[in-house]
Amino acid sequence: MREITTTDELLLIKVGKTGFVLNERPDVRRVHHASCNSVSTWIDHPKYFSESSNAAKDWLDRRFGSDGWVNCSYCGGLNSTLP
Fold this sequence. Notes:
The protein is of the alpha+beta class. The chain is 27% helix and 23% strand.
């Protein structure tokens, strides 16, 4: 996964509707499909992007452990069926 550093970059990811976004907030690390409406377009905390669900899961598990992050309950995160 790579860090998303600008609002413009995040907007391009959302418009592309491909891949996955991690919102790393102090209270929870939540993974969303790039097209999820729950992904804000503000860079108010660290956000990361991956084109691949497998690469994202490997990175997340290595960095935070398998219990250190959650999938979005709205879109399904890495299990998403959104286009």
